[in-house]
């Protein structure tokens, strides 16, 4: 029997594409987390210069222009039928509804507390994805979600400090519900349409829904200081256009529950940036709650025993199926 010196190389080649995909997904996820964290800071920094509706319209209009330009260059297929309907729903829930409510919430909350409250959403996504998208309820994910939920409870009960008030808490929770609903609808929509198409069409529909705020936006932008206008443009280009394209890319390649759970890391980034750039910090209980959120996401990303065994078996099959050469 002839021994094949190429078997290790062939086995490595069989594993490398999956590893490369995983690294791309991880890198895209990290960029999304940083950009979305910066959005909380930019919204809070704009303050009263732009009203919530005007800011939402301006942000989505800028995002739509950037995304349409990218779509003209890439020419992805347009969503049709059920896919188009789902994209429209996701555009209304996330690009329009969530954006306005978040802008309003940050008039009553510091950026860190707002980010921690919005991250109730992964809890809602994980439960709904398990029930309706047949993603199941892996033990590490559910334990992590429970730990994070305990953190959210601490924030809601003891995290209201000098920069926050009870109305802001309610608005933050409403923003989380809209965010979770948008993720779930988007996950289903991405089964029927291209990620870029889903993003630019969803953003355009969100901007169209926000058109009633256009006259107000024109007046406020003309009177606003330059940093506020630049922050609005930044929100449209990066946290909206760039981050949402990358988010759709990640969501197509990961489960909705696991992907959404990764965003629990956003509050930690926001708290640090809020402290450095805005001089704001949540209360001590709010910080403890944020730490629990981080612990929850770390736990939820663990692989369960059966999942590890399935992955190992899959890798073994790939190696065994490699020709001897």
Description:
The chain has 325 residues and is mainly α. It has one domain (39-302). 79% of the residues lie in helices and 0% in strands. The chain contains 14 helices and no strands. Residues 1-15 and 308-325 have low confidence and may be disordered.
Annotation, overall tally of beta strands: 0
Q: Which regions are unreliable across 5 or more consecutive residues at pLDDT < 50?
A: 1-15, 308-325
Q: Total domains, how many?
A: 1
Query: How much helix, percentage-wise, in residues?
Result: over 70%
Rg to the nearest angstrom?
Answer: 21 Å
The total of helices stands at 14
What do the pLDDT scores average to?
A: 81
Strand count, sense and barrel status of the largest sheet are: none
Structural class: mainly alpha
Order of helices and strands: HHHHHHHHHHHHHH
Give the overall form: globular
Q: What separation lies between the terminal Cα atoms?
A: 13 Å
Strand content: under 5%
List the helices and strands and how they pair.
Elements (H helix, E strand, L loop, with lengths): L6 H40 L5 H23 L6 H25 L5 H8 L2 H12 L6 H20 L7 H24 L5 H15 L4 H10 L2 H28 L2 H7 L3 H13 L5 H17 L4 H16 L5
Helix pairs in contact: 1-4, 1-10, 1-12, 1-14, 2-3, 2-8, 2-9, 2-10, 3-7, 3-8, 4-7, 4-12, 5-6, 5-7, 5-11, 6-13, 8-10
